Amino acid sequence: MSVPSYKRILLKLSGEVLMGEQQFGIDTDYVARVAQEVKDARDSGLEICLVIGGGNIFRGMAGAAKGMDRAQADYMGMLATVMNALAMQSALEQLGVPTRVQSAIEMDKVCEPVIRRRAERHLEKGRIVIFAAGVGAPYFTTDSGAALRAAEMKCDALLKGTSVDGVYDADPKKDATAKRYDTVDYDTVLADNLKVMDASAVALCRDNNIPIVVFSIRERGNLARVLAGEGTQTIVKQGA
Ligand code: UDP
């Protein structure tokens, strides 16, 4: 596989990545480990935007399933992503990496609002920008938030760091014959309903020609390998 020449990436981490081996919440040691990998990537000269989910704390769908109003539950989920963003900012700054959090829900005591031009300036200065609260609206996920920010910040790729090492044609936990794709087309992902990101996020990446790189962030050193075009991953792109 040829070495990708990314200059600016958006790295999306599922909230569950922050729990480490725990069942819930934030494992600060694990967050520090991931922060070190993000720092290494940034020290190699990359501009990095981060989006972190909230599933380790609260998911709107789970609240709705227990009878909560869906929109209300989704706002709680968005607040969870702000907590995760602050935890990651803290870990990155302890490693000496200047980091700014921009939230789609304004919260001026704790972070900046999303302002694209300001985010641009942060990146130029070598800061990492963490975009929190997804798109700032219920009925969406942080995958859609990641696709939106990747498009508006003109990122060369959206890297999705998760617990699985790519995209499979069936659930690898349930089907031993499940096959992992090295590359797969956006339209195949949408038509076959493959588990990558939600459909609105995939469509937004397709329409803006942003490759989606799905890899496991749980394996130590994997982010660097994936950025070097090595390691195990699936790339979702046009004409794969
Ligand atoms: N959420 C939302 N709008 C957004 C982003 C997130 O309503 O634009 C809510 C939604 O309830 C979601 C929760 O925040 O379940 C946490 O985000 P997500 O499920 O994407 O986190 P992840 O699965 O990546 O940890």
UniProtKB/TrEMBL annotation:
| One Pfam family from the record | AA_kinase
Q: Is Membrane a UniProt keyword of this protein? A: no
Q: Where does ATP bind?
A: 12-15, 55, 59, 162, 168, 171
Q: Tell me where the signal peptide lies.
A: none
Q: What domain of life?
A: Bacteria
Reactions catalysed, as given in the entry: UMP + ATP = UDP + ADP
Q: Where is the Aspartate/glutamate/uridylate kinase domain?
A: 7-216
The record's function comment reads:
Catalyzes the reversible phosphorylation of UMP to UDP.
Q: What quaternary arrangement does the UniProt entry report?
A: Homohexamer.
According to UniProt, the name of this protein is Uridylate kinase
What species is given as this protein's source? Novosphingobium jiangmenense
